Amino acid sequence: MKILHAGYSQLRRLAAAAIACAVLLPAAAGAENWKLSSSFNYDTGKYGTEYRTDSVYMPFTLKRYYSEGDLSVTVPYLSQSSRGQVTWVGGKPVRSSDRNAAATASKASGLGDIMLRGTYNLKQDGPGSCALALAGKLKLPSADEDKGLGTGEMDEGAGLEFAKEINSWTLLADGYYTIIGDPAGVEYNNQVSLDLGFYAPLRENLGLTVMYETQSALVDGNADPRSLSGTLSYAVPEGMQISCGVALGMSDGSPALGLSAGLSQKF
What is the pLDDT of residues 69-102, one digit of tens each? Predict the structure, then answer.
């Protein structure tokens, strides 16, 4: 147990180090050091229950770019229609650990959990080479746990983000480990997340990102969330970007279908 606790403490240090490094780094060269973005995300699925849960997630993110990394804060709005057996944990809907919970129809909305995230570039040698970054994230428990919009506990995570240019394509791979906070009377598993995919330019200013995502289940007995997503992004002059995407669930732990549309502006 002491060894396990020491490992958690080390992970917290890595997450804090990535965020702290991003804060202390000098600003990136050029005029566009900031980005403001938002998106509309609709998910629907049963998550291993008998009833369907529909949710709308609208994050508003402000990102600051530095010479060797970035720092961002995300404030989301969340709306969920369910029968009380699904709770938002770590920014995603999860089947409740209480299998005997009453299936009572309900609809709740409000502020979601605020996310603070930072990255520090470990390796970035220019076009054609591979890029590797240390990432840290901290979830602040701002959502109302009584409405099923959050756990009321803090989560901390750290990981690595990898990118490699191959001809005009870019190979993408991310790996995270997140310590999930446990509310009173509930015990969630800590989570391992892996993403693998690619970015491909289709034409001028238009690109496609395809990602396969898998995560370990937060609750014993639930299926591991797995999904496949595709996102089209179009770069508009003056630093603006428009995107739209679709995600398909590949297990009972994920939404059966997800749709998204986003807009971002650099300044």
Answer: 999 999 999 999 987 678 888 778 888 765 555 5
What SS3 state is found at 11? Answer: helix
Instruction: Give the separation between CA 173 and CA 160, rounded to whole angstroms.
Output: 8
Instruction: Give per-residue pLDDT as tens, 127-153.
Output: 667 899 999 999 999 999 888 899 999
Residue 146 burial class via C-beta count within 10 angstroms: exposed 0-12, middle 13-18, buried 19 and up = exposed
- Mapped onto helix, strand or coil, the DSSP state of residue 208 is strand
Contact between 254 and 45 under an 8 Å Cβ cutoff? The reply is yes
Q: Where are the domains of the chain?
A: 2-266
Per-residue pLDDT at 259: 98
Report the sign of the C-alpha dihedral through residues 176, 257, 45, 79, in that order.
positive
Q: CA nearest 59: which of 135, 138, 118, 112?
A: 112
Confidence (pTM): 0.85
- Return the CATH superfamily for domain 2-266: monomeric porin ompg (2.40.160.40)
* CA 25 to each of CA 17, 70, 119, 131: distance values in angstroms, whole numbers, following the listed order: 12, 9, 11, 18
Listed residue (206, 186, 208, 190) closest to 198, CA to CA: 208
Q: Which of 81, 87, 71 is nearest to 219 (CA)?
A: 87
